[in-house]
From TrEMBL:
SUPFAM superfamilies: alpha/beta-Hydrolases (SSF53474). Gene3D superfamilies: alpha/beta hydrolase, Immunoglobulins. Transmembrane segments: none annotated. It comes from the Bacteria. This is Carbohydrate acetyl esterase/feruloyl esterase. One of its GO terms (molecular function) is acyltransferase activity, transferring groups other than amino-acyl groups.
Length: 352
């Protein structure tokens, strides 16, 4: 008996089909194609020609969680038009979910759900209007006495402000943790991480440093005021956190570590560590009197991640400078499998 994949995307007419043993069957209408391959989580498999342009492939049982795939047709990569759950931006891939025997924290469960709000705001740092997504928790009350804690959650280089919800499932993770009583209700803002237009990278050798500088300015001077003016959120460091993955981990380090009077809780997942020149420019703020306001600096990285060595070196530097932090080394590489695991860990540590 097949399981309907992607409960929140049932209108996709069901490709792929996830079976009870957690294998998945993929179908593709290939027309006159000579070869069709399935690229499933970076492994390539030849699909079987069923005749009349129909191709199919059934995988081995897959681990529970969210997986991505794309078709390769006569050498050209093609997304699945029968599955509307697509991770988009620099690279696009379809996604599907293999449910756990018991519901995973990333799964849509029968619990109260929060609301996602899409915002445009004027950014002085960038010089144009920018987008952000804001999550408010179930039962959000803008008139309650106590402001909600706030998390700024930053995405990676190849994504946009939608990545943490479309692929990372941050809203469902948060819903499920709140319902389980493991975290308190909070507001999350997810900004777009490229205030410096990405097109400028083609002619600029210092895109990363310029984008980092603008992102820090945008968060502090534009994003936070927008959120504070629209939502009941805390304005003190001990009730504000910042975290991110890859490039966004670098953004959380640059913004949070150097501004402990703004963010007392900092998380960096598989982080693109800022250059030494950034440290030299900000060491006084990192180590200064405000550093005592820092509650947690949490770093996590998989041992197969291409940024692992950089994170190990950063850990050594933090130890040398006497900066309190936690460095969690896990299995895994530079992908959403680990980031969807790191976020609930960080959420359960913050605001304690």
């Amino acid at each position: 008996m097949p399981i309907v994949a992607n409960a929140q995307y049932r209108s996709n007419v069901g490709n792929p089909t996830v079976h009870a043993d957690k294998s998945a069957t993929f179908h593709f209408d290939g027309g006159n194609a000579q070869t069709v391959e399935l690229v499933l989580v970076n492994e390539t498999y030849a699909m079987e020609n069923q005749g009349e342009g129909k191709w199919s492939f059934t995988s081995d049982p897959l681990p529970p969680g969210i997986h991505d795939y794309i078709f390769r047709v006569d050498g050209a990569e093609v997304t699945d038009k029968k599955n509307r759950w697509v991770k988009t931006w620099i690279s696009s891939r379809n996604q599907f979910e293999v449910p756990g025997d018991t519901p995973l924290v990333t799964e849509e469960q029968a619990v109260p759900h929060g609301v996602l709000h899409s915002h445009y705001y004027r950014s002085k740092a960038a010089g144009y209007q920018r987008k952000a997504i804001v999550y408010t928790p179930p039962g959000y009350d803008p008139k309650r006495d106590q402001p909600y804690p706030l998390l700024v959650l930053c995405h990676g280089y190849g994504d946009d402000e939608s990545a943490w919800t479309v692929t990372g499932r941050a809203h469902l993770i948060t819903d499920n943790l709140i319902a389980a009583g493991k975290i308190e209700p909070l507001v999350i803002v997810m900004p777009h991480g490229h205030p410096e237009p990405l097109e400028s990278k083609d002619w600029s050798d210092d895109y990363a440093s310029r984008n980092l500088e603008k992102m820090t300015s945008d968060i502090l001077g534009d994003l936070l005021p927008m959120v504070e003016s629209n939502y009941l959120v805390a304005e003190t460091a001990e009730r504000r956190a910042i975290a991110g993955l890859s490039m966004g981990g670098g953004h959380s380090i640059s913004t949070g570590l150097a501004n402990p009077h703004v963010f007392a809780w900092v998380g960096a997942f598989s982080a693109a560590i800022p250059l030494d020149s950034w440290w030299d420019d900000n060491e006084i703020d990192i180590l200064g009197d405000n550093a005592q306001q820092r509650k947690l600096f949490w770093i996590a990285c998989g041992r197969d991640d291409f940024l692992y060595d950089k994170n190990v070196q950063f850990d050594a530097k933090l130890n040398e400078k006497g900066i309190s932090h936690q460095f969690v080394q896990t299995e895994g590489a530079h992908n959403w499998y680990v980031w969807r695991d790191y976020l609930p860990q960080f959420l359960q540590l913050a605001f304690r």
